[in-house]
What does this fold into?
Amino acid sequence: MSGASFVRDLGKGTGRTGRELSARCGRHPAKTTRIHKCEAIL
It folds into this structure.
């Protein structure tokens, strides 16, 4: 499982939006989006 798919599944499993997940992780929402799209390195 890649890091991106893990993050994506984590959000789906909790029913949280990308913005909520970003806030809980202390990351900017754009960073979370890039991770979801596999465009960023964790």
